[in-house]
Design goal:
Layout lengths: L2 H4 L2 E5 L3 H13 L3 E5 L2 H8 L6 E4 L8 H11 L7 E6 L4 H9 L4 E4 L4 H20 L14 H11 L4 H8 L3 H15 L4 H10 L5
Parallel strand pairs: 1-2, 1-3, 3-4, 4-5
């Protein structure tokens, strides 16, 4: 796959100047356009005039935490449902991971950063985001069926591009159970794949 196929506009929010410069250079060398901010307010100023394809964000920031910032951005619509959001942080405990997922993060990577893993995560998240944006009409006609609370949670996570293993971790259930929920959701809503599931999540307002 060529650089032109994978290049994206990435907003990187990190208060440590040295790390911000180092990772920005790494991402730029990979072909991406990188915008940087040292705090949430700077990030919001950038988002007022630019829509990135993906946001990389530290959790510990001056002022608002990365968790609070993400919640604000999702709630106010300053980043849309197709914009992937990846937390980059030194916090590796389970509760911090869960809090990031609850805030609406698409994925999570811990410091020190494994660059190979980071590039793979970015490529996967961008592919999913482009799939969402490529749909000519994101909303779809859905049958008037009832989804259980768990099915709604699973569908919302699928709409964010969350992998099955991550959904299981977030909801504290087995992957087998997640796969059964996915099978039931597909059957009830007449879906055929994850792109359909993402559109269904948008239609049902689960990513607003």
């Amino acid at each position: 796959m060529s650089v032109s196929d994978t290049a994206a506009t990435i907003l990187y929010i990190e208060d440590e100047a040295a790390l911000r410069e180092e990772l920005s250079e790494e991402l730029t060398d990979a072909g991406h356009q990188v915008l940087t901010a040292a705090c949430g307010d700077e990030a919001e100023a950038i988002l007022a005039g630019t829509t990135p394809d993906l946001v990389l964000c530290d959790v510990i920031l001056p002022g608002r935490s990365g968790f609070a910032l993400l919640e604000d951005l999702r709630r106010t619509g300053k980043i849309d449902a197709a914009t992937a959001f990846l937390f980059v942080t030194a916090l590796s405990d389970r509760e911090s991971h869960l809090e990031g997922l609850r805030a609406g993060a698409t994925d999570y990577i811990t410091k020190p950063i494994d660059l190979d893993q980071l590039h793979l995560k970015i490529a996967n998240l961008l592919a999913h985001a482009r799939c969402l944006r490529s749909q000519p009409e994101p909303r779809m006609d859905l049958p008037p069926v009832h989804l259980s609370r768990r099915e709604v949670q699973v569908l919302a996570a699928m709409g964010r591009g969350t992998r099955t293993t991550e959904i299981a971790f977030e909801l504290q259930i087995s992957e087998h159970t997640v796969n059964q929920y996915i099978k039931d959701i597909y059957r009830k809503l007449g879906l055929g794949n994850r792109a359909d599931a993402a559109r269904a999540a948008i239609t049902l307002g689960l990513l607003d």
